[in-house]
């Protein structure tokens, strides 16, 4: 099946080339975050033919407002770090498809296959999976209907839309507190809804949030409903200590309750844990020979940019070693 490529994505500045669906690559990388881009650099430096398929470059970094714990940068915005990564990758003539996601995985035999959502099938001797994670949903009435109309999952992307307005943030971890800080700078009022009795974010973030007078934290609370006709107008919150429920008038709600791995396409082909993460060993090997995985989609603990990049390097080296030993 022919693949429709966005050839405008390949500018004169980049050395990317369109991926050939009929070709058999040595290594096929699935994903576009830090693990994927690091893996691409290592594979190309090893001289193996390499293809990469991704929905978009950057992964979750592109939705991160600031990065202060990546070695070499005291402070850098998420999008700026993505640009640095892509600048490094684009010096190589790697074969790329952008705007596509994997739907299925076949790992039996010496040739591995990835089927895309458009039905096209790509093939390689080895595969490196670096598909990361996606935002979890609350699953309450009104969420699906009002997504994009006041229901948001990325403060970096959507915070400017709520300048001078009242908003809510759900989640007391790093993502939730970071979002509350971003919003507190521009919103009239921010209400942070936390199911637990304390925030679980890093102390430096909790301290930063405490410096804003326009932030209220509701502990032991949860959102039960999102209300609005055409756009978010209020949310219903329940006090789990008393059972009392009330409506809070807000123009937007940012849902920051964690992430789920993008691994459904590998279900049945690879071993996954209870959370849906791909099981890997210390060399990023999965349960199937010739298939490797790295980054947040795997069972490796501590989901950090620098860890994902390091795991991407390991996965690439393991994949290259596998290809060379099979030749």
List its salient traits.
327 residues; alpha/beta; FAD/NAD(P)-binding domain; 8-stranded mixed sheet; 5-stranded parallel sheet; 7 helices; 18 strands; elongated; disordered N terminus
Helix- and strand-based class?
A: alpha/beta
Q: Tell me how many strands there are.
A: 18
How confident is the prediction overall: mean pLDDT? 92
| Biggest beta sheet attributes | 8 strands, mixed
What is the class of the largest domain in the CATH system?
Alpha Beta
| CATH topology-level name of the largest domain | FAD/NAD(P)-binding domain
Outline the structure in words:
22% of the residues lie in helices and 26% in strands. The longest helix has 22 residues, at 305-326. The chain has two domains: 2-135 and 259-326, FAD/NAD(P)-binding domain, CATH 3.50.50; 143-255, 3-Layer(bba) Sandwich (FAD/NAD(P)-binding domain). The chain has seven helices and 18 strands. The model is unreliable at 1-12 (pLDDT under 50). The protein is α/β, with parallel strands linked by helices and 327 residues long. The strands form four sheets. Strands 1, 2, 3, 4, 5, 6, 7 and 18 form an eight-stranded mixed β-sheet that branches.
